[in-house]
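Progress note, project year one: complex with guanosine-5'-monophosphate.
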Amino acid sequence: MSDCIFCKIINKELPSTVVYEDEQILAFKDINPVTPVHILVIPKKHISNLNEVEPEDEATIGKIYTVIKQIARKEGIAEKGYRIIVNCGEDGGQEVGHLHFHILGGKKLGTKIV
Ligand code: 5GP
Ligand code: ZN
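Model obtained:
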């Protein structure tokens, strides 16, 4: 997708601070962190949001969780814990139309979801 900012980050047309990369997955620091650790994990394939995930994406989406685990350990937040958020669509508060998993940690988060 030529007008997608996360595809541009994947293609290195836009800069980012990469914390993990393999053939299917990229993880980078959020430009506007809301917690001391705020990392976005994305599939390299352009998938607009969870509504567009196909059976062929299951391996990549599954792997994203083992990547999250690795990043959490590396960032030193695994033991104390963290939160994963995936916003979907307008009501879900999604602003960037490329599927992304927020890793939020480094401070004690509240128990409320909304
Ligand atoms: P959403 O609201 O779509 O779930 O989250 C989008 C996230 O992407 C936001 O936390 C926002 O700060 C982050 N973001 C938007 N544009 C950029 C960018 O160009 N670079 C990086 N690293 N993060 C971005
Ligand atoms: Zn994209």
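The mean pLDDT is 97.
Residues 58-74 form the longest helix (17 residues).
No further modelling is planned for this target in the current period.
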